[in-house]
Amino acid sequence: MNRIPLGIPGLDEILGGGTLPGSVSLVEGLPGAGKTTLALQFIYEGIRSYDAPGIIVTFEESPEQLRRDAGQLGWDIQSLEARKKLKIMHISPGSLRQQLLDSGSDLERTAANIGARRLMVDSVNHFQRITLDPVELRQLFAEFVSELRRRSLTSFLIKEIEIGESPTYENYTADAVITLTNEAEGHRRARYLEVKKARGQGFLSGKHSVKIGPGGIAVFPSLAPEPTANDSEPLVKRVKTGVSRLDEMLDGGFLKGFANMIAGSSGTGKTAMGLHFLCAAGPEDGESSLVLGFEESGEEILAFADTIGLPLRRLRDEGRLEFLISSPADFCAGEWLQRVRETLERGRTTRVLIDSLTDLENAVGDDQRFYNTVYSLVRLLKKAGATSVMTSSVPEAFGEFKLSQADVSMLVDGIILLRMVEMESEIRKALSILKMRGSDFSKEIRAFEITDSGIELREKFAGREGVMRGNPYVVVPREGLSKLEKHLGIAEPAQRSPVEVKTSYNAALAVVHPSTRQIYADQIPNVLIQLLAPDTDRMMEALFIRLEEGATTGEQPFTHEGEEWGYCLSGSFELYVEGETRTLSPGDSFYFSSRRPHGWRNASSGSAEVIWVVTPPSF
Question: Model pTM greater than 0.85?
Answer without folding.
Answer: no
